[in-house]
Amino acid sequence: MAQRYCTNCGAELRDEDRFCPSCGRPVHETAAISTPEADVPVPPPPSQRTDGGDPPQAEPPPQRSTANKLLLFGCMGLGLIAVLLALVVGLALVASSGGGGSESAGGGANSQNGAGPDVGGFGNTETFTNGNYAELYSDPKAHKGASVDITGQLLERPEESGDELAFQMFVDVENSDWNTVVYTDQTDLDLNMDNYVRVRGQVLGSMQGENAFGGSITAPTVQASKVSTVSAGQAIDPATEVRMINRTVGGQGFDITLQKIEFGKESTRAYVTLANNTNYGASFYTFDAKIVQGSTQVDYLEDSYAYYDEEPQEELRPGVRTEGVIAFGPVDPKQPFQLRLSWTSDNYNVNTRHVVFQITP
What we know:
Layout: E1 4-6, E2 12-13, H1 27-30, E3 31-33, H2 66-76, H3 79-88, E4 127-128, H4 133-138, E5 147-154, E6 159-161, E7 164-172, E8 177-184, E9 196-210, E10 216-229, H5 232-236, E11 241-249, E12 254-263, E13 268-276, E14 282-284, E15 290-293, E16 296-299, E17 315-316, E18 321-328, E19 337-341, E20 343-345, E21 355-359
Parallel strand pairs: 4-5, 8-10
Antiparallel strand pairs: 1-2, 1-3, 5-7, 5-9, 6-7, 7-8, 9-10, 11-12, 12-13, 13-18, 14-17, 14-20, 15-16, 15-19, 19-21
């Protein structure tokens, strides 16, 4: 009687087996009957030619295109990603098993190992950013070859295969949405789960997968030309303008350096360095920081979960320096304003004054 084997893991199956004893897959989906090899003549190797002709030259191995490399890597390198998605948002982007391969650049050819990213369609002159990414996300295949300049947050640590690195990121960080798979040849990137990045590159297409409930989902795939780390604020609320200040204001032995200000649509972010050069402890009151623009006061964003950038320390011993980001509500960068910061000294004989930065367009 012919032997049966599981096509999923290769284990031998008995006649009464309904499920593979090794991997658990249903037998009706996996069973394959072994057949004897066909009795066909095998041509002699080149060194044993008997017809007097020159030995044939061995053909070089086919060169795999970048697109195909990405197809294979996308299929085999996202196991960890699936687990993390299931835990974090209930969505697991996994390669579909059997028959579900995505079409390659040639159109219609399936990846050997299952679902992979669609590629092709280059020459597209569109550009997508966080502002219009919803259009791309709704139909990635329709925008193959389009340029992207997006920011987001990693769902997991990148996975490396040869000269390629791949990771998943949420482009819509605040809503944990717009899951996107990114490929890059920057294998020296030091990235971890939850890091924020800026990605510039081209749309490859999409990757098919399943969520934790068995439903079909599609994630855009991007070939990055440049990946760089950014702040949380820059990823969540990209700056429409960045103004370099690099100015120090102090007196009384407590100095504050304003390095730069980022103006986003929903926030204004001040990057500061504090230095307690006094002989006493000092306290910096982040919650009391304010921006005054005309007759409007813009307060510190105290409870905004979206801004995970580290703030400066508030209790400083003598000689201590600290730096961080202070987030405020939105400010018009085209109009002048004041940035007012306050502190106190443990020396109660010192009547501390506000540190004020005058910012002009």
